[in-house]
Amino acid sequence: MKTILIILAFSGIIAASIPLLASKKWWIRAFDFPHLQFTIFSFVIFILLVFQIDFSNFFEVGVILLLLGFLIYQCVILFPYTFLAKKQLVNAQNPDETNCIKILTANVFQDNKETNRLIELINKTNPDVIILLETNHRWQKVLQPLKRAYPNSVEHPLENFYGMMLFSKFELNDMSVRFLIDEEIPSIKGKVQLKSGVSINLHCLHPMPPSPTENEKSLDRDAELLIVAKEIKESDYPVLVIGDLNDVAWSHTTRMFQRISRLLDPRIGRGFYNTFHAKYPLMRWPLDHLFVSNDFKLVSLEVLLDIGSDHFPVFAELVYCTKTIKNEAPDHATPEDKLEVEETINSGLEENGKSPTQ
To answer: I want to staple 205 with a disulfide (CB 3.0 to 4.6 A). Which of 121, 165, 243, 354 is the partner?
Structure first.
């Protein structure tokens, strides 16, 4: 029993160590995702091992101390996404309705035939803006009745699981469908005008994940996120970034995205808000994201019920305020961050036959 526990302890240590590698290979970056599961696994092994080891045996003591060290490291990474941490985005008190925006975002899963479940959810939640990912032409046809309540839209259906559609009750301006890295992977950028007249820069993203079936490296995903981060840094407008980023909140890339863009994560201080995989409760992590500039407060944030997709939808209500020091800003980007950003963006552009930035 002790030997098995020691082997499992080393397995936990290795699993926690792999994400520290700088490689962008898919099988290394895949270890970013089940961080919570690895932490629970390590904790259970640690507790069991405490009652088994011989404290006079230096090797066994070394193993459990090493496991403890990595367990503490794992908990430090996850701590911001617990209710014990300070909220990065503060709660709104008595929000001004003319400055509020209710958003529903969902990766619908292109082959999902249960379209009525999404329609029912939209009718129930009554959002102002809807962002839908993995929408193909079949989904586009089914969703056309939404235009009665949502007259403003951007529609780019595709059959490659990267189609994207945006419906809005609010006025949309300067909207465009862009292909930042890969010519088959769209994103949407434009301005949403609130009832008060305030314009918000909106970025809707769904970069390709690192996986053996789609992309052998995380380079394209990372480059797309960091291109957007740099654009946001130079923006004078309030900003919302929404979508399935195919990355988890605690990964190196997503945290660097925050440091570069200076956007806030409403999950920090509130919870994990796991959205994928909807069918496997033991294997879930937060792939669907909402980041906001320091112009907002949070009214509500929730992961909604299953709509037949492999992702759960996310609903958020935000209120625009003048910039508030009450929010907890992310760390500033380091010179090393900025150098890595440029290298990642240029490598991603070059690998896709595009000119690197200056």
So the answer is: 243
Strands of the chain, DSSP E: 100-107, 129-133, 152-156, 164-168, 171-178, 187-193, 199-205, 239-244, 288-292, 296-303, 314-320
- Nearest to 218, CA basis, from 257, 179, 182, 246: 246
CA distances from 256 to 172, 175, 181, 224, 350 (A): 29, 26, 19, 13, 21
* Nearest C-alpha neighbor of 314 from the set 223, 237, 222, 249: 249
Per the CB < 8 A criterion, the answer to whether 181 and 169 are in contact is no
Residue 326 to residue 238: CA distance in whole angstroms: 16
* Mean pLDDT value of segment 137-151: 97
CA dist 235 and 142 (Å) reads 36
The b/e string for 199-227 (b: 16+ C-beta within 10 A; e otherwise) is bbbbbbbbbbbbeeeebebbbbbbbbbbb
Q: What is the pLDDT of residue 357?
A: 67
Provide the 3-class DSSP secondary structure of residue 268: coil
Which tens digits make up the pLDDT trace of 228-254?
Answer: 999 998 888 899 999 999 999 999 999
Measured CA to CA, the distance from residue 275 to residue 285 in angstroms comes to 6
Nearest CA among 146, 134, 145 for reference residue 106: 134
SS (H, E, C) 173-209: EEEEEECCCCCCCCEEEEEEECCCCCEEEEEEECCCC
SS3 (DSSP) at 135: coil
Could you tell me the two tokens for 139? 């989904």
| Cis? peptide before 277, omega within 30° of 0 | yes
Instruction: Encode 55-96 in three state secondary structure.
Output: CCCHHHHHHHHHHHHHHHHHHHHHHHHCCCCCCCCCECCCCC
**Assigned token pair, 49:** 């091992």
